[in-house]
Amino acid sequence: MNSKPGIGVIPWFVLGTLMVLLPFLFFKSNSIDYESRAQFLHDIARLKELNVTLNEDMIKTRFGLLPNYDKLVTAGIAVTTASTILQKRIALENNRPLNQAWDIYINHLTAKQSLIENFKSHNAILRNSVRYLPLITREFELENQQASGSREHAKAIRSLLEKTLILNLDQGFEHLVGIEGLLKTIKAGSQDIPNRARPAYEDIILHSQTILTFKKAVDELINGVYVIPIKASIENVLATYFTKFNAHQKTVDMYRTGVFVVAAFLIILVTFVLYRLSVARNRLDESVTKLNFQKFALDQHAIVSIADVKGNISYVNEKFCAISGYTSDELIGRNHRIVKSDEHDKATFKGMWKTISGGKVWHGEIKNVAKDGSHYWVRSTIVPFLNKNNKPFQYVSIRTDITNHKNMEVDLVHTKDLAVKANQSKSEFLANMSHEIRTPMNAIIGLSHLALQTDLSVKQYDYVSKILSSSTTLLQIINDILDFSKIEAGKLSMERIPFKIDTVIDQVCSVISQKADEKGIDVYISRPPGIPMHLIGDPLRLGQILTNLANNAVKFTDTGDIVIALEETNRFLGHVQLRISVKDTGIGLSDAAQKKLFSSFSQADTSTTRKYGGTGLGLAISKSLVELMGGTIGVDSEQGTGSTFYFTTDFEISEEQAVPAAGKNLGIKGLKVLVTDDKEVARTIFSLILKGFGMTVKTVKTADKAVQELQSACHKGVPYDVAIFDWKMPGLDGIEASRIIALEPLISPKPHFILVTAHGREEALKEAKGMASFEILTKPISPSTMFDAVQHAMDTAFYAKVNTHHDLLSDDTALQSILGAKILIVEDTPMNQQVAQEFLENFGLITTIANEGAEALEILKTHDFDAILMDIQMPVMDGIEATKAIRKMKKYKGLPIIAMTAHAMKEERDRCLRVGMNDHIAKPIDPDILFRTLLKWIKPAQRDHTPKPNIRKFTPPDLLPAPIDGINFEVGLRHTSNNQTLYVDLLRQFKITQADCVSDLIHELHTENSPAALRRIHTLKGIAGMIGAERLALTATTLDLKLQAGPDSDYATALTEFSAQMDRVLNGLQVLIEEPRPPAQETTLTKVDLSQVQTHIDQLMGLLQNADLDSLQIAHELSTNLNATPHGDMVKVLVTNLEQFDFAKAERTLNDLTERLSKPP
Amino acid sequence: MDIKSRYIVILGLTFAAVSGPFYEASAAGLNLKNEPISPIPLKHNENPRIANLGRLLFNDTRLSANNTISCATCHDPKTGGVDGLPVSIGIYGSVGTINAPTVYNSSLNFVQFWDGRAANLEDQAGAPIQNPIEMNSNWDDVIGKLKADADYRVAFGELYPNGITREAISNAIATFERTLTTPNARFDQFLRGDKTAISTEELDGYLLFKSYGCSSCHQGAAVGGNMFEKMGALRDYFSDRGNITNADLGRFNVTGQQEHKFEFKVPSLRNIA
Questions:
Q1: Cα–Cα distance measured from residue A1043 to residue A1045, given in angstroms and rounded to the nearest whole number
Q2: ipTM, two decimals
Q3: Per the CATH hierarchy, to which homologous superfamily does domain A810-952 belong?
Q4: Taking Cα atoms as reference points, which of A828, A915, A909 lies closest to residue A875?
Q5: Mean pLDDT throughout A565-576?
Q6: How far apart are CA A705 and CA A700, in angstroms?
Q7: CATH assignment, A959-1073
Q8: CATH topology (fold) of A410-481
Q9: In this predicted structure, what is the pLDDT of residue B173?
Q10: Which of A1038-1047, B10-19, B223-232 has the lowest mean pLDDT?
């Protein structure tokens, strides 16, 4: 219902007003008093009649028809009384004209009555005389007769009497003259009247005259009465009354009309109201019908009940009955508790009552119990119906049967629990995997490192180095997968530690530079000097992102360059927002590819995966990491042109902000620098960096122009302090330019020369050997490397030391400070024990091994150490417990304990630090990190140290020959963990083993033995890479690819190049071959040391049971011991078994050997 | 019918009538129709309870200022309705200006007082109460005093819708006064046809009374009292008498008209013997 049915306020108001108005109008319309009117008319008529009667009575009195005045008086009083009555009535009328008319009448009446009174008086006198005159006349006649008076007189007097009496009754006065004449006559003869008759005579005269006078007066009075228009005045009153009455009647008529109108209006209104009511009722009926439908619909779906405020049921629908099993009769009147189950606690219902009694709607899910005791679940909505005081008077509950739903929910919860458990299992599995995989990886990588330091055949060296590189790759993949898992599980958290942005970038560059170098791609770093160096954040993750992007850039770029650019986009309140981008000139990406690029397991397309390899997780991880850092990642790309991957992140600016470079180092600010590079991007970046140092920079495109510029500057007397040349340039290259500059007399003073190269440093050195003095700066160039280079160039006239890889391992001073330090290695895995031990002892540290925590505590009771390397997961007592125990020992409160764990997770690390460990290093152990960490914690001191004879001491640098053409010592040394002895040995072996490589290859190719050729070239590729013969490795790769393409492919050029490089390397290595090999160990034993043999056999037995690779080494030693004996063959079998990793067979062979040895010869 | 023609008719009718008494008198006959004197009605129609209330009031001295004078003081019904003094003595011994008229048959007077200043008995009743030399009181005092009397309250309450008021008091007194008539005198009996009721001498006197014109003024039931007449209709009475007082001006004092000077109500000749 959207419109309110019924009647608004206004009609009711109007109705009310009319109802009030109607009686008023009705009263007014009935205010005419017809009875009063009739009475008035009657009174008027009576008044008129009485007045007439009064007049009549007056006339009657005058003419003696009435014997006395009583009747006249009565008539007069009657008129007065009637007048008084009417006057009162008129007074009630309260009408001015009427009153005025009445006043006229009253005046007339008063005048009339006054006349009548006068008439009465006068008439009495007239009558008196009229009565007396005959009497006195007779008396006169008698006296006159007796006295014999004149008859004439008597006659005259008789005549007078008659005439006077007639006059009295006469209307007019025609007799008057006669009477007066007669009187005169009588008076004239009066002297004749005898004396006796004289008194009578005089009376006659007096009365006659009186009659004459009073007759006239009386007649005048009567006339006067008649003249008064009393009748007219009464009629006037009546007329006025009528006027007034009619006017009143008009008013009344008006009121009557009013009554009629109001009544009509009322009828209309009532009709209207009734109509509206009827409409409202219809609508109400309609609404009721609709409501019934709705209720019906509701009843079809919902379980409905209505209860009063106490919860007593007053209505239930069929559904309610159906679900509860009760009939409605059983339910109505009962309390709702009838279906209450004990599922919910009291607080639930309390809360519900509180809500609904407060007039609010309650929603909830309730478990109810049916009549048969079964349970059902309903989702219930309880709506309180409020009365006018907003107090609920009943509650309507609408429920939906959710029993199935609930059951499903329970199932779901169960399923979810299972899923969560499964997920937990997965997480645990991953964590375990992390540990389980890293532990053997540690062994593999560590042992590979160690193996490379041992005397290996070229073939072996190749294998091991491949194992190492593959392991490293595998570790990287595993790390990616673990990272991704952690990100997915939300377990990855960001660190907030101070770091140097340049360090991160340099590390990234060092990781990618080799590959970039191999592909001939230049890497540039654009870092505006204004960007804060020291930041707070997660350098590891930042590095990871950047490495990822940079690796991709290298991977997908074949020619051109890569620019890693930093840009400050915002700075606020100690924070800086950086936009870090990696721009390449690679294959680029389609728009579609860009869109799905950052999702998991995605590459540009599947063919890309085939071509370029990779897990496809890198960008997904990078995206997640950037987002965890609170930044965004994106890509701009054009297919075939290149891509720019960029991300923005916020960093806090560290307090320990470095002193500006220019201030730190005097002398380089204000220097004049000439930059010569054919590449635009290089010129821009160098210029930017150098200007940042406060230098004056000029850039030129070619070396020719540079020479001219230098000459011109000298000529002008403003020579350049530093000249930076790119090596490989079209036309004059950097090295040639340096020669020209050195020889050019017009350039003086000579600028300090810096050669920038993306290629082998050694090549540059060799090219330039003895030609000029210059600093070599390898790409990619960061502000810090540039700064160092400039500084070195300025400091040293000649500085060609291959030492830009500022490795701590070669830092004698640092090493010296911890040399001889005693380290306790607590580690349960023998292989890891070996790795750690050998690494440390290589550094000149003294190690002791404890297999688990408890053992470590035992050792610590009797021995002192400078530091402990602590594994975490160990049998008996783990690293955490051990640390806690150690920290309880007063003596070792400050002892540095460094955790070694495959658990790379931060949580694990934090746990270590919490229990009192000082630091943490991740497995597989990076020698560099291990050393740095130890250096950080071990107190510098002069310690006695005697390096173990069987452990190679850190090789002094002088073992290396002079730079050899085509071999990058740096690379080679890195591959051999700076083991120069090993390296030199490797180089020597290369010279020997590969002397006939090319001829063999050509032979194989000619005999169409391509598998052999392929194997050969493939092997060589690996070895060449390992020893640092980078060009050779490159050409080998090219050749390899050509050969793989098929026997018909044109490999001639590749073969020629390969051959040339091979010759170059072999020639270079010639210098080594003259050197005598170190004296080979005496292998012939005169006497077999049986006890030693037995030890080896026992040792070997244990290792074999563990399928330990160390067994091979022991087997070799055993072989050495028994070579000359009759058991030599058997030992050889053993070694072969082991070389085939057939530990079971080896064990059987060893058992046979032991049996044979135990028999007396 | 215009006034003139009507006048002629009436004149014609009355001729014979007027001549009647004339000849009757001369015949000293016994035809008593059209006698100038009428008998006093034998009955009155007054409410006896009101009349009784009026009687109490008539004798109540509380109508006067100091509760010393009642109506009856000067109009004692026991003494012929008068005090018997030439001029009445009012409150505090005040001496009035005129002779007190009798209360008997006062209702037959067409107006009250000699000069007719009261149209009826009701009007008349209040005048002495407020007259300073008579009762020297006022209506409020009188009503107050009467209301203090429980009997009056009951009596008035029963008889008058508004209880004790000026009108009610006046009406009660007037009603009482209207009961004070003297009907059925021998003369009245004579007039009603009993020819033996009066003596021959008395009859002769009556005939003379009529023939000498006395009955011109002294006529009606009260033998007077129903008209005004000038003292000295034919001769100048007051000039002859001299010493004219204000009261002598009579009706003039009421109407202020010169012609009403010396006019008085014609006195009733009843009960004067």
A1: 5
A2: 0.85
A3: Response regulator (3.40.50.2300)
A4: A828
A5: 86
A6: 6
A7: 1.20.120
A8: Helix Hairpins (1.10.287)
A9: 94
A10: B10-19
